[in-house]
Structures are given as C-alpha cells and as structure tokens.
C-alpha cells in the first residue's frame, strides 16, 4: 500500500511542481482505483469494506475531475462540469481530493490492526425466524414507511427506515451464502417493493437505486464470488440499473415537476423524448466530481481566512435529543455552504439549496492542512472501529451486525457523508443499534 501511495505521490508532486491540476487528478485515480485491486488480490471478495467502496467512489470522482479539467475549453462541457468552480483554486481542490480520502483510508487500515473496546453488535436468528418472523417484521416496517406513518424521531426514525433496505442486503447475503434461494426470493420481493415505492414517491434519486445496490452487494458478498452476478435474479436488476443511469439526469431535473405515482412515470416518458444521450452520461460523471465545491473552499479561505472550528458548533450540541431541547438548531452546514458561495437564497427563513462541502473540505476550511491530516486519519480510524463492531465477516446469521455493516458500506458508497456531521450521525446510529441489541438480547442459533 505504501508503494502505491508513493507512485501516486510522484504524479501529485509532478503536478504541484508544474502548477498543473491534471497530474494530481491522475495520481488520485492511480491510488483510488488500484487500492481495491490490491486488497482483492490479498483477500478476494472478503476484502470488501467501507474503505474499499469509498476508494472506488473517490476514484470515479478523480476521473470526473480530470475530465472536467481536460474539457474546460469546450463551452458545452464547461456548462456541465464547471457549475460554480473557483478556477484559481482548482489545484488546491485536486490536492484536497487526493490527500483527504487517502488519509481516511490509511486511518481505516490502522484501525483494523487494533483491538477496540466498543461493544459488538450480535443478534442471531434461527431458520424459522429468518424465513417468517423477520420478513414479516420488515414488511410491516415497509408498510409504515409507504404510508408515512413513521414519526419524526431523529436517528430512531432513520434506523426504522433503514431496516427494509438493509434487510434486502441481509437476506440476499444469507441466501447466497447458504445456497437457499427462498431467502434470495424474499430479498428480491422487497427489492421490487422498495424500488417501486421510491420510483413513484421518493424525491432523492439515491432511494431509487439503493435497493438494487443492497441486493447486488448482498449476493456478491454472500457468495464471495463474481460468478453470482450471472444468475437469473440479476437480469431484471441490471435492466433496472440501466434505465436508472440512462435517465439519471432527467429524474434529477424533473423530480420537482412530475408528481407522484403513475403520473410520474408518464411525465418522465414524455420528457425523455427531448433528452439527449450525451448529456446524461456527462452529467452522471460530473456528479462525482469535487472540483466545484473544493475549489470554492479555497476561495472562502482566501477571503475569510480559516474558520478555526466556527462551522463545527454542532459537535457540541448535536447529541442532545430534540425531545429534551425542542428548539435545538437544525444542522444544515451544506445549506450554509451553498449560501456562502452564492448558490442559495434565504426565503421565509429557510435556505433554498444545499451543497456537499465534504468532510475534507470542512476540515481544511477550519484548520487547514493540519486539520486534513489529523481529521482524515481520525475519520478513517473511527469508521474502521465501527466496522469492527459489526463482526461483518464472522457470522452470516448475525442480523444486527449485517444491517449495521450494510449501513457502513452505504456510507462508503456516498463518500462518508456530506460534511463532518457524519460523525454525529454514525455515532447516533451505532447507539441505536447497540440499544436495540441490549433490549432484544443475542438471539438464538
């Protein structure tokens, strides 16, 4: 791994010496794409963890950054990639995109060689509960979510809404591991239900694709072989993913205008007739690019100096339950960031937009490179420690461990959060899992 880091650094230092951003982006791609390959060669599918998925996403982001830089002279490409870029800080953006995630991955690796004292999550289900009681519970939770009957209880509500999606992963994983297709079929039924509900009613595109991601990851990890990707269960999933990525940009642009239910599908079909293929592909890649927000971080620091913790006030009051403090301020640093860079307004006391500044960006905004160094290592070590509590690779019947492990994989797929609020969110979610474990016990084999 250190050799890989050294090779990547050669590209980075070459770019810094020439004051060119392209070699820095290439160095990031080298590390983030080859790190998963290196881990796979060591442990096969069993190497999959949140850091692996995080690295892949950051590699795609580095590719998006490189494409943005190389196509900056084309007016059409600039409209797609340079949405609000601060061009004088592009090199800084590329350096932040490289060093922040690399340090996070190093921190994660360090945690895997240590023994932590956090309580492990473990609840074992027998075959009867796996095939009947558990699916029934998941279905009831799905019904509550479908009819919007889940009360607003902060992290507890997020935990309840997570269960149907994470259960797709758990059942697919267990079915693939034990070669029992009945569990795979149950997982597939929940995949269809949750995808349809999101397609008809969800506002975020992520909710549409996440059930398929859960199913694919569950089957892949359960079987521990890529051969499972050829099974018939995957054909409709592949087709659905193809449609999703084909209409990715269209859904994003029209989601506030297309209503709900079957009306949404009809309007999407009408809008698709006027949509160009090349715009979809380019815009999808640009979504992974960090060149806009990270360059704006540089501009803010140049204008305001470092904030020295000013944006991190939520780390002080964030753990206070809202039922004890009903007036607790809403944490919306992404909205503040959008407003600060001129991409949001305040209407009726509310921000009109929110932009991901990333954990790396918020660390640099407050404490500069020292913050990126210490904070990046801490975030990786923190997430890695949480990963160990799931006992992810030691028990396929461990429901709570698998569900929490999937939540961490999900965080990896979405870059470990939009800012440092992720630390609060992950800690709170772990405490809810731990509290649930204390209430229901360890289960039975």
Specify the biggest β-sheet. Answer: 2 strands, antiparallel
Helix percent band:
55-70%
Any idea how many domains? 2
> How much beta, percentage-wise?
under 5%
- Rg from Cα: 22 Å
Distance between the termini: 39 Å
Order of strands in the sheet with most strands: 1-2
Element string (H = helix, E = strand): HHHHHHHHHHHHHHHHEEHHH
The total strand number stands at 2
DSSP helix count? 19
Tell me about this structure:
- The chain is mainly α and 445 residues long.
- It has helices at 2-18, 22-43, 50-70, 75-81, 90-111, 127-146, 155-178, 181-201, 206-223, 234-246, 248-254, 262-272, 277-288, 291-304, 314-317, 333-340, 359-389, 399-413, 421-440, and strands at 346-347, 350-351.
- The chain has two domains: 2-116 and 291-360, no CATH class; 127-288 and 427-440, no CATH class.
- The protein has a two-stranded antiparallel ribbon with strand order 1-2.
- Helix 2 packs parallel to helix 5 and helix 6 (127-146) runs parallel beside helix 8.
């Amino acid at each position: 791994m250190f050799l890989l880091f050294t090779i990547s650094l050669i590209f980075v230092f070459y770019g810094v010496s020439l004051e060119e951003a392209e070699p820095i982006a290439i160095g990031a791609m080298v590390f983030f794409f080859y790190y998963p390959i290196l881990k796979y060669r060591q442990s096969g599918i069993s190497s999959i963890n949140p850091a692996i998925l995080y690295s892949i996403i950051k590699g795609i982001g580095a590719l998006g950054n490189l494409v943005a830089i190389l196509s900056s002279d084309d007016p059409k490409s600039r409209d797609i990639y340079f949405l609000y870029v601060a061009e004088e800080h592009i090199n800084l953006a590329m350096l932040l995109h490289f060093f922040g995630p690399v340090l996070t991955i190093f921190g994660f690796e360090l945690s895997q060689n240590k023994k932590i004292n956090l309580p492990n999550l473990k609840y074992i289900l027998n075959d009867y509960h796996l095939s009947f009681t558990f699916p029934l519970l998941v279905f009831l939770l799905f019904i509550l979510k479908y009819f919007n009957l889940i009360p607003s209880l902060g992290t507890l509500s997020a935990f309840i809404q997570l269960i149907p999606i994470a259960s797709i992963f758990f059942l697919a994983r267990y079915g693939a591991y034990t070669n029992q297709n009945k569990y795979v079929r149950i997982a597939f039924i929940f995949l269809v239900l949750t995808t349809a509900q999101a397609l008809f009613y969800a506002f975020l595109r992520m909710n549409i694709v996440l059930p398929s991601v859960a199913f694919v990851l569950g089957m892949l990890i359960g079987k521990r072989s890529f051969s499972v990707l050829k099974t018939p269960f995957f054909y409709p999933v592949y087709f659905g993913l193809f449609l999703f990525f084909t209409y990715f940009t269209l859904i994003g642009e029209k989601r506030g205008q297309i209503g709900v239910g079957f009306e949404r599908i009809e309007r999407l079909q009408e809008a698709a007739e006027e949509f160009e293929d090349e715009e979809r592909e380019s815009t999808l890649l640009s979504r992974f690019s960090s060149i806009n927000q990270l360059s704006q971080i540089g501009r803010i620091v140049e204008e305001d100096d470092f904030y020295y913790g000013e944006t991190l006030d939520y780390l002080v009051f964030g753990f206070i339950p809202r039922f004890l403090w009903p007036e607790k301020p809403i944490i919306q640093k992404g909205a503040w960031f959008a407003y600060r860079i001129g991409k949001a307004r305040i209407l009726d006391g509310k921000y009109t937009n929110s932009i991901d500044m990333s954990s790396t960006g918020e660390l640099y905004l407050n404490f500069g490179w020292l913050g990126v160094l210490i904070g990046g290592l801490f975030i990786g070590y923190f997430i890695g420690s949480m990963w160990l509590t799931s006992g992810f690779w030691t028990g396929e019947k461990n429901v709570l461990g698998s569900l929490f492990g999937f939540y961490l994989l999900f965080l990896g797929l979405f870059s470990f959060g939009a800012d440092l609020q992720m630390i609060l969110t992950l800690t709170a979610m772990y405490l809810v899992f731990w509290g649930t474990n204390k209430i229901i016990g360890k289960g039975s084999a």
